Amino acid sequence: MHTSTLSELAQALEAGETTSEALTRETLERIQAHDGRYNSFITVAEERALEQARAADQARADGRAGPLTGIPFAHKDIFCTEDLRTTCGSRMLENFAPPYNATVAQKLDDAGAVCVGKANMDEFAMGSSNETSYFGPVTNPWGDGLVPGGSSGGSAAAVAARLVPAATATDTGGSIRQPAALCGLTGLKPTYGRISRYGIIAFASSLDQAGTLTRDARDAALMLNTMAGFDPRDSTSLDREVPDYSASLENDLSGLRIGLPKEYFSDDLSPEMAEQVRNAVREYEKLGATVKEISLPHSHLAVAAYYVIAPAEASANLSRFDGVRYGHRCENPQDLNDLYLRSRSEGFGEEVKRRILVGTYALSAGFFDAYYLKAQKVRRLIQQDFTDAFSEVDLIMGPTSPSPAFAQGDKTDDPITMYLEDIFTIASNLAGLPAMSIPGGMVNNLPVGLQIIGNYFDEARMLNAAHRFQKVTDWHEKVAPNSV
Amino acid sequence: MQWETVIGLEVHVQLATQSKIFSGASTAFGAEPNAQASAIDLAMPGMLPVLNEGAVRMAVQFGLAVNANIAHRSVFDRKNYFYADLPKGYQISQMYHPIVGKGEVSVNLSDGSERTIGIEHAHLEEDAGKSLHEDFQGQSGIDLNRAGTPLLEIVSEPDMRSAEEAAAYLRKIHAIVTYLGISDGDMSQGSMRCDCNVSVRPKGQTAFGTRSEIKNVNSFRFVEKAINSEVERQIELIEDGGQVEQETRLYDADRDETRSMRTKEFANDYRYFPDPDLLPVEIDDDYIDTIRDGLPELPDAKQARFVTEYGLNADEAGPLVQSQALADYFEQVAGGSGDARQAANWIMGELARLMNQNEVAIQDCPVSADSLATLILRVQDGTISGKLAKQVFEALWNGDGSPDEIIEKQGLKQVSDSGEIEALVDQVLADNQAMVDDYLGEEVAKKQKKKFNALVGQVMKASQGKANPAQVNEILQKRLDTKG
């Protein structure tokens, strides 16, 4: 069954060909047997998962089953799960089990989905290669020694390795789309405010958005149907009707207007990558879409603005990890200052510390205007770029990442090179726009992601475009050589 | 040298919402430590603030009451600092765009003059928890029940020129917030706290001197004392050739002195920035108008009405409107007795004296307004003398029954039977032949009057104060005239 997509598993469950308990047992056994190779899970929730699976089978017997009932999946370890350890990839939360569910976790629980475990990730979602996790790096099923991307590297590796059909993830600057690209998956980051952030451990509150990593767009639509929606507990979530994302998947694409930002095809992108992306876009023309070059003139400022705003917000968001109420606490603190200093020094890894320092600096008296306020101005310019673009086109397409999966250790010594991994993905976070990455080609036998950026709340159109593409291409069906 | 004092106050008013400003936990005072701290108040990972509309409404009420501009758009900021009783590592406050803009209040001073004090702005923020340093053997306890309690911080202009003005201003703020019902104003429980910014400058100089800030002064009396002692300290310091340092000081009431808490070098850089978890607060004119229409009569308007409606002068009306409860009490006594002047005299005389002496608030006063009204009526209708009324009032205070019961029980009814009084007069004349002769022999009218009054006194004494004084006068005069 492990080769099946989420939608196929849902059909099998519906048809009575298998049970959730059987699926879950198989999933748990496969994780047990093979995850040593990927390190994609931080915590496996055997007992809890089997209990949920039996409850799902009961629900089905009672005629209360929905599309996700009984489906095993993984949560990125940034979603708080009640009484189930939630580490955020950090030593700080090595032993933290929240007494509450994130809204996303609650919704998936309520839908009867079965959480088999918590996926590895970059520490506090800070990283683009899943090498900053306190629980060790994650290996990409597309090749030993290759990174899966980050920060949702564990979620991506687990789906690419075919350990689970789907995983939740979060995207602050590309953390869903870049791993999707590097692992040959469909990754969806919806509009900011589409999915509640309640119970998601915050990295940068104005940029964080939950989403999905799946094998195809059809599965992404099913997940989004359950995960999206207004939440009174998150003031930034938007009170807007959730359409049935599955219903419009088959819509005809003729007349669809696609824009290719010329800034996304510059020297930052290798000719081979560019060619793959252009080939993919050509498929859309065959499907009836029109393609034109557009400009997003402030694109080159996105990474710089992001690396002021995100660390600034993070520096405050991570202040609560002080060793006082929960989380890591140093041994024998001498006084309050010593407690803070050592608990945080020991609990946080290098990249997290770097970003706290950068953010603290950017907000400091004398620098606030030059950094934080200026970055916010840039952010508005970038938003305006997109607003202008969407007056001419329906979807924007381009590469997801500058290169395919790279080797572990390649970029860890140079943070700036690592930050440039997100050069094409960051702008949509700054603008709050929905964006996704779907498999769009191959370079050196490694997957290449095609990024699709939509207008606000236009997820249905994006999923429709992705699905129609996947009906006429097989990039998303390529199997990672090291999958099981 | 002549010195001028310059004072500005920052008053923190705890708003009387049922639940906290950003969580659903109760704000009730006196619960077991940490029994009223929700996951949000504890700053658990992934928790998000949701603004309590009640706090916004109360802030707007206050703003309208002091004729301030209400911001149609206000923004919450994070104020970053580490402390054990500040769970998030930042306090949510309003630094750049407060909800209440410039306003003003007028205060009456003891010399009969009136001063207008500007309000620079007022903003919403959350309170911190409490650190408990006793009873923990070298460790500190943290109680987060208060964490997240809504506060309105009211910042005055540096308009006050004496400790008396500062105390009068604080009393006015207290009256306004309690009239509005947006705070219980209980300073002993910390519902109202005051930071005093104090500086001195040579009279005539326009530039301000260096100020010190006296933190957390918690009574009207202490505000006056703390400012006076700080002013004295600063003047002495300067006259001795020293300089005032910009610093935070604490007032020690036992020693009646302020002492340094922290100097400017150790001042925090709070790194304020807009809280990305909360949307800007948008308020429209309808919202403001609805609140304006619902405002109660405020102290100044009530004082003016007492002058026109009850014929009191402003000095008499001023103290009566200091609290809504006292003003209500007055109106009930005035209405019941039909004699507003007597009502005011009783309330500001005997009642105020006993309330002060016994430290009782008007709400807990054992003499009901109806009883006091009845007492005044009994004086009016001649049932008792004005002199004995005080005795009845004290009995009322002690809970000895209704006015009529007390008059009856204690036999205080005024004697108005002319036969009885004639008998008393005759007896006194017979017993005091020397005084009578003295009177009759006096030639100077003024002196004779005095001697007459002494005889009246003897008659009153003989009647144990119960004889109707007017009748005594009349009968005595008649008798003496026939002797003469």
List the helices and strands and how they pair.
The complex is a heterodimer of chains A (484) and B (484).
Chain A: H1 6-14, H2 20-34, E1 41-44, H3 46-61, E2 72-76, H4 103-110, E3 114-119, H5 153-160, E4 166-171, H6 177-183, E5 186-189, E6 209-214, H7 217-227, E7 257-261, H8 271-286, E8 290-294, H9 302-317, H10 336-347, H11 350-363, H12 369-389, E9 395-399, H13 415-419, H14 426-431, E10 435-443, E11 446-454, H15 459-472
Parallel strand pairs in A: 2-3, 7-8, 7-9
Antiparallel strand pairs in A: 1-3, 4-6, 5-6, 5-10, 9-11, 10-11
Helix pairs in contact in A: 2-3, 7-15, 9-11, 9-12
Chain B: E1 3-14, H1 53-65, E2 73-74, E3 77-80, E4 90-93, E5 103-108, E6 114-126, E7 130-132, E8 141-143, E9 150-156, H2 163-180, E10 192-202, E11 212-217, H3 220-239, E12 247-252, E13 257-263, E14 273-274, E15 281-282, H4 285-293, H5 299-310, H6 314-320, H7 324-337, H8 340-358, H9 369-380, H10 386-397, H11 403-409, H12 418-431, H13 433-441, H14 445-462, H15 469-483
Helix pairs in contact in B: 2-3, 5-6, 7-8, 7-9, 9-10, 12-14, 12-15, 13-14, 14-15
Task: Using a beta-carbon cutoff below 8 angstroms, give the protein chain pair with the largest interface and the number of residues from each chain.
Answer: A-B, 44 and 31 residues
Query: Unreliable segments of chain B (pLDDT under 50, ≥5 consecutive)?
Result: none
Order of adjacent strands in the largest pleated sheet of chain B: 5-6-9-1-10-11-12-13
User: Shape of chain B from CA axes?
Assistant: elongated
Shape of chain A: globular
Rg measurement of chain B, Å: 30 Å
The value of Rg of chain A in angstroms is 21 Å
Oligomerization category of the chains in this entry: heterodimer
Main beta-sheet strand count, sense and barrel state of chain A: 8 strands, mixed
Number of helices of chain B: 15
Total strands of chain B = 15
| Beta strand % of chain B | 15-25%
Please, how many domains of chain B?
A: 3
List segments of chain A where confidence is low: pLDDT < 50 over at least 5 consecutive residues: none
User: Termini separation of chain A (Å)?
Assistant: 12 Å
Binned, the helix content of chain A reads 25-40%
Strand order of the largest sheet of chain A: 4-6-5-10-11-9-7-8
